[in-house]
Structures are given as structure tokens and as C-alpha cells.
């Protein structure tokens, strides 16, 4: 990455950025002007996602590659320095049978959940692991063979009360002669022994034209916001009495102009709610490959962070505006603890046709300041990524563990 490395310590926000099999820990200065690499830890294979323990100075990192049969699919339990979040060592490695896509814990840090699938010959599955008092994985919890599932899980997330587990099954669009595979949000009851039980499936329109990628709970615990990938929508559902509304109460586009999808296919990405509960952010990704080519389409896709205000009485989201990341395909983004900085990881680059390199854009990090209590974003700078390690597939700010009973944290990223 084009940044200062291993320099003197400057107080700021620690952030993890993955690049291929490397987990890099960086420090972002308080004003966003300086990004300094503190360390880099090599993991068994490509980092897919990570989740910080709410109790211990531990980061659970899942690695794998659905398109490389020789890649190790596994969970890495990474020890962190308690006062800074700097990774120190891989304390434990647990092998997985399928490429992981997402991982998370419950609010008390007692259970680790893993959603797997996608790629070549990678079966869709969800797994639960019991976590010990020291934060390490004790055992895998077998699930019923009759447990209901969907198509291509993209996120697994426990409800705030820890009694239910939500899985976003993205489904697949029709292509190459194959019919559309429906999407769904499936909710399971979580037993005291870690076993899951079927509870509810939400699939508006029987899941056709419904591609839920990620959800996030509002701080009040009653509203659930979902990024609907291929439809480029932000949807709001109500969660009361252990039941999710069967259809969204509100649905709004994440794009500045919906007709952009005709020129360049668009997909929504990560979603995060401002700690105040008054604003929600969603990343827009230009699906920028020209058909039949590995080159990207410059200027036709929308790569941005969409900002919405939340009506505090009804939960309805109102679009405020979109802020460009000046990057391509911001797959993940993260908000720091102070809620004054947002970092987005653009996983793709752009190479112009021909031999000229003029106008080329590498994968990069975008650093944005959060202002107005969450109402506005301002792009401060971009940091180009050195592709020697790989593209920035995931990023997430470090948060100091709050101890037993604290809410589980995803580092405000998402894949």
C-alpha cells in the first residue's frame, strides 16, 4: 500500500485490511491524513471475513477460496494486543469443509457462526462452534440434517437477544441457461446447546427478484435493515415478538439514478447503521466487467456510499445522497468507534484499453470523514493498494473488547 510503514506511534483508529492471505493492521490518524502500517500477519489462505470477540482481545478470521481447490478453508483465532488491537499470533486453526463467506459471534461471545458456500463445488452450509472461556474454539456443534437452508448464504448474524440466528441467502440470478434461484432471509432458533431449529423464512415474491446480501439491526432492536444486492435496494423490516415482517415496510433505491443499471450492472454491498441510530449507510458497487472481457468499464458504474436518514418514529429511511469513493467496487466499509471516520475498500481496479497506463486506477482504500452527527460524508483521500499481497477484500476497524455481556461487533465492515 502507498503509505507510511512501521513508523512511530500516532494516536488514532486501528483498522484491519485483508490482502490475499495477509491480515494487515493499520493506524489511521485522528484527522484521516496519515495511514501507517503497524504489522502484517500471514494466514493459511485468502481472508474472506473477520469478526472481533466482544469479550476477548481476539479476532476470528475465516479464510478460503471457492475457486482454488488447493486453498485451505479454515477459521483462524488471532490473538490481539489488548490495548491496541495489533495482531500478535495465530492461536488456533480449525479446518472447514467448504469455503467460508461470513462469520460472527453471539453478543456474549459464546458461539461462533460460519456461513459457507459459493465458488466451484462448495456446498452451502452453516456451522456453529462453541467458544471457551479463553476465546478459543472448543468444539463443533452438529446440526440436524433436516435443518432448512437456502441458496448461497452471504451473512450469518445473531439477533441482539441471542435467541435467534439470521442467515441471508442471496440466491442467484438466471444465467447461462440456468433458472433463477430464489433468495431468502432464514431465521433459526438458537438452543442452549448451540443447535439451530427452523423458525421462519422471509422471501417476498417467493424469493424471485430478491437478493438479500446483508442485514443490520437498529439499536432499538425492532428494526432490521437489509441491503438487497442485485435490486440495489435498502429495505426495512420489523422484528417483534420473535417474528420478522414477511415483507418490507419500506423499500428505497440506493442509486443516484436507477437507469444507470442499464448501462452498467450495479449491486448493493455492505450496510451499517450509525451508532446514533439516525443514519444508515449502504455501499454501491459498479459491476464493471464488460461482457466477454476482463477490462473494466470506466465512468459508467456507480461506486459510492449511499446515506439515508432514519425516521425515529417509523423507521422509514430517507435518501440524503451518495458520495463517490473514487474507487471501483467498494465491497466492504467500516465506521470507527468515534463515528467520525469511514473507510471503504475498493477491491477492483481499472486498466484502460491499449498499452497506455494513463487513467489506470488500482484497488484502493477510500477514507471519508463523517460529519453532521452522521448526516454527511466527505472524501478526504484515497490510498492505492500494492497488489503484491492482493486486493483489499475486507476491512474493519478495531474496537477494544467491552467484556462479558457487551454487544458483539462486526467491526462495522461486511462482505
- Count of structural domains: 1
- Helix content percent band: under 10%
> Widest sheet: strand order?
1-4-3-2-30
- Low-confidence runs (pLDDT<50, min 5 residues)? 1-10, 290-294, 404-415
Q: Indicate the CATH architecture.
A: 7 Propeller
Total number of beta strands = 30
State the major sheet.
Answer: 5 strands, mixed
On the 0 to 100 scale, the average pLDDT is: 89
Radius of gyration, Cα only, in angstroms? Answer: 20 Å
CATH class designation = Mainly Beta
Q: Could you give me the name of the CATH homologous superfamily?
A: YVTN repeat-like/Quinoprotein amine dehydrogenase
* Distance separating the two termini: 21 Å
Strand content: over 45%
Supply the helix-strand structural class. mainly beta
Envelope shape:
globular
**CATH fold type:** Methylamine Dehydrogenase, Chain H
Number of helices: 1
Molecular structure report:
The protein is built from one helix and 30 strands. The strands form seven sheets. Strands 1-4-3-2-30 form a five-stranded mixed β-sheet, with no helix packed on it. Strands 17, 18, 19, 20 and 21 form a five-stranded antiparallel β-sheet that branches. It is mainly beta and 415 residues long. It is 1% helix and 47% strand. The chain has a single domain, classed as Methylamine Dehydrogenase, Chain H, CATH 2.130.10.10.
Summarize the structure.
The chain is an all-beta fold. The protein contains 1 helix and 30 strands.
Which features does this protein show?
mainly beta; Methylamine Dehydrogenase, Chain H; five-stranded mixed beta sheet; five-stranded antiparallel beta sheet
